[in-house]
Structures are given as structure tokens and as C-alpha cells.
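We include the entry.

. . .
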Amino acid sequence: MPLRFDQLDHKEFQDCTSVGMTEHEVVELAQAFRLYGFWRIDLDTGLYFATPDVFRIFEMDVTDGPLNLVEARARINPEDLPILMESFERTCSLKQSYHNIFRVRRGEDGWKFVRSVGKFRAKAGTSGEIVGITYEFFERLRTAAFSDEDESRK
């Protein structure tokens, strides 16, 4: 697979409250119709904590506590693993942000594309942590989807 390095331009923060939305609504909309997981890696312990959608993206059973990195690594395409590991190393050493698009096993004999976006975050008294999001790409189809959730239950 061809590899492309992109220059990350730091975008201006978009304040959702300027258009009358809450941060909760933004997150709710972002994850409404696709797997969209949040995660954190503690750099001192190496533990990787993730929300249930990260487990689902990797087709792993959702568990309490840290995600099993050995199991997750086995689901990443071996050709994509070196650049993903380099991204984590550079993020830690240079205290920067990154994004990767890589392949994760789909079922027994297929692959799906996922994107991971992360950044270094300083944490007092520690080596810091990396926080980020991972979400699944899907085929580009013309589609419409609606939530059947009863708005009165909120």
C-alpha cells in the first residue's frame, strides 16, 4: 500500500457553542452512525484504555479495564504496524499530534480501514499520555439513516 506523509495544519478550534450546540451534541452526532471510539495510553504503564467502540472496531469482546494490546496488535495488518508504531514513538518524543489510516482484520479473511487520530497530553508527575479517537471507514454509498430513538426518553 502506498504511504503518504501529510503535513498537519493546525486548524482553528471550532466552537460548537457559537452555533448553539453543546459539546455533548457534537460527540453524539459524530458517533451516531459509525463506530467511533475514544482511547488513552498511559505512557508510564503502557496501558491502553478504550471505550467500547474501539473494542468493536477491533472485533474484540468489550471488557472493563485496559484493552489487551497483544490481541489488538494481532488484528492490525502486519504491513501497517511499523508506521503505526513509529507514529506513537514520534508523538511521545516530539509531543505532537498524528493521524494514521490502517487496516484491521474484518472477520476471518478480510480487512477494513480505520483512522486513528491522537495527540500527546502532558500529565503532571508522569511521562504523559496519548489520547485519541479511532473510527471505522465504510464504503462510500448513497445512504440515509435515521435514529428510531424516542426523543422523549432523553
